[in-house]
Amino acid sequence: MFRKILIANRGEIAVRIIRACRELGIRSVAVYSTADKSSLHAQIADEAVCIGPPATKDSYLNMNAVIQAAINTGADAIHPGFGFLSENPQFARLCEKSGIVFIGPSYKSIEMLGDKAAAKETMANAGVPVIPGSKGAVKSLEEARQIADKAGYPVLVKASAGGGGRGIRRVDSAKELESQMIAAQQEAKSFFGDDTVYIEKFLINPHHVEIQIIADKQGNTVYLGERDCSMQRRNQKVLEECPSPIVDDELRKKMGNAAVTAARQCGYYNAGTIEFLVDNNHDFYFMEMNTRIQVEHPITEEVTGFDLVKAQIEVAAGLPLKVTQEDIKLRGHAIECRINAENPELNFRPSPGTITALYVPGGPGIRIDGAVYQGYTITPYYDSMISKLIAHGSTREDAIKKMRWALAEFIVEGVDTNIDFHLDLIKRPEFISGNYDIGFLNRYMEQKKNK
């Protein structure tokens, strides 16, 4: 087992990883920017190293600074969390060259799956259902027209190196294709440094359902049920639940087996998430694979009782999985609300500032993954998420009830938050019935705007 792990991240996920290290008896090293000097993760780690100024490119994305911090502190492994360098194959390779274990998959797997177009082609070759469209990257406008005509409009033009909802454009007719393709390429170039795009059929109002897998280096792979991530605003997840209200045991097994097949096809190890779109006929299609821990991993942990972060560390150390597929049982239901410092009434504008008062809910079935405290100053440099509120109940109805009172008790003063927005959302009849899809929240927001 590792002696010391450096966490190449910040905020609540860094705190989450530090706590897992404590339980495993491993010393932790936090890295922080000058803007994060008073952050919780920098204060509770065994050691903390400043790696640069506030801009992410000069701190959390500075590979050399992160590696040097690991070397200087004697860390023998690096956990990247999510975002930042977590899906950067160059960083994973640099860790290997420096004699430091990267807590994640191999850089080869990240390369293979990081290119969305190439990943889709790999999955198709493995027999995993994929959305109709281009087999790989689209090389010309003429090729794009042929593929779109064959798939049938509407289609999506998507960045091959994309993520976080960036580099995606919907095209409803042939006359829009050129302009939308150029727009997607420009955004992809700006955010990812790669303007490669691919095309896939746009499924009308599907569910976004993802399967969590964990695989060891001995070739054992299991899936830990699914999460429904259909509650999205502009391709950004807002609320997730586990299990999905539309998935039954038969569909879960089919999707889980497809996810395991996908992982094995890539020689994958460590935690990963295979994302699918599920249509009204319960047919499912591979969308992408995330080669890291997910923001929404706590709801899977609550329902399965399986600690994903500790398992990540153990697998990276070469230990075999402690469970088989038969050991994985889903118990009850869990919901996660992402609590952001933002103003929903002002188009979700970020709300930096100092938290003057803070009260977080607790009690049976309530979990808070956060990194803020009273007196903490939220800076404008990073993502606006400040906490994740998780409610776990014996049934979906029970989890919804717990989430309602937990949101009602959650108090944050000094900055705007989306707590009331979540409270309104989970009272909607569409959510209570489970009868919502990936387009619901955008439609709901449009209706509110037009009132």
Q: Mind explaining what this structure looks like?
A:
It is a single chain. 34% of the residues lie in helices and 26% in strands. The protein has helices spanning 11-23, 40-44, 63-73, 89-97, 107-114, 116-125, 141-151, 177-192, 249-265, 297-304, 308-316, 396-409, 419-426, 429-433, 440-450, and strands at 4-7, 27-33, 47-52, 77-79, 101-102, 155-159, 168-171, 197-201, 207-215, 221-233, 236-242, 270-278, 284-290, 333-340, 342-343, 349-350, 353-354, 357-359, 366-370, 377-378, 385-393, 411-413. An eight-stranded antiparallel sheet has the order 13-12-9-10-11-14-21-19, with helices on both faces. Strands 3-2-1-4-5 form a five-stranded parallel sheet. A three-stranded antiparallel sheet has the order 7-6-8, with helices on one face. The mean pLDDT is 95.
Secondary-structure blueprint:
Layout: E1 4-7, H1 11-23, E2 27-33, H2 40-44, E3 47-52, H3 63-73, E4 77-79, H4 89-97, E5 101-102, H5 107-114, H6 116-125, H7 141-151, E6 155-159, E7 168-171, H8 177-192, E8 197-201, E9 207-215, E10 221-233, E11 236-242, H9 249-265, E12 270-278, E13 284-290, H10 297-304, H11 308-316, E14 333-340, E15 342-343, E16 349-350, E17 353-354, E18 357-359, E19 366-370, E20 377-378, E21 385-393, H12 396-409, E22 411-413, H13 419-426, H14 429-433, H15 440-450
Parallel strand pairs: 1-2, 1-4, 2-3, 4-5
Antiparallel strand pairs: 6-7, 6-8, 9-10, 9-12, 10-11, 11-14, 12-13, 14-21, 15-16, 17-20, 18-22, 19-21
Helix pairs in contact: 4-5, 12-13
